[in-house]
Specification:
- There is one protein chain.
- By secondary structure, this protein is mainly α.
- The chain has a domain of about 55 residues.
- Helices cover about 70% and strands about 0% of the residues.
- It is built from four helices and no strands.
- The two termini are about 90 Å apart.
- The model has no long low-confidence stretch (mean pLDDT about 75).
Length: about 150
């Protein structure tokens, strides 16, 4: 029987990889190595022209969409400013109207012999409805201001 030590010595003497230097490389490999060594550090990128045109079209569409969004935001901002100004004008005019009616109420004195008639119930109900509506509008306004759009 063969001794294990002899097998180990035989295997350890034999190189694991045989050298290729003894055989010449094929000319294709040599040419390829030369081309790689001589290649510029920046190589051109090749893409299909239809894909390139498609990408440019998509970029153009995105720019167009961005411009539309910008215009919409500008219009919304202007609308918001107009709404604020109109609300301020309405409140100012309402205050002027209220002051004028209070002034008239103070100026006109009811004669003693003319009976004073209290406000009718329909007017009180209308005032309650307006107060309720005003509260709801104020609540909606606050809700809109708190929205992050």
């Amino acid at each position: 029987m063969v001794d294990m030590e002899e097998i180990k010595k035989a295997v350890s003497k034999k190189p694991i990889f045989e050298s290729l230097a003894s055989e010449p490389l094929p000319h294709e490999v040599v040419d390829l190595e030369k081309m790689i060594k001589e290649a510029p550090s920046v190589a051109p990128v090749f893409i299909k022209m239809d894909k390139y045109k498609e990408i440019l079209q998509k970029i153009n569409d995105l720019r167009s969409s961005m411009n539309k969004i910008e215009d919409i935001l500008r219009v919304r901002k202007n609308m918001h400013e107009i709404n604020l100004k109109s609300d301020e004008m309405l409140e100012k005019n309402f205050q002027e109207f209220a002051e004028a009616t209070n002034h008239f109420k103070r100026e006109f004195v009811v004669a003693r012999n003319i009976p004073f008639y209290p406000e009718d119930e329909d007017k009180k109900e209308t005032d309650k409805d307006f107060s309720k509506l005003s509260g709801e509008i104020s609540k909606l306004k606050k809700d809109l201001e708190n929205l992050d759009i």
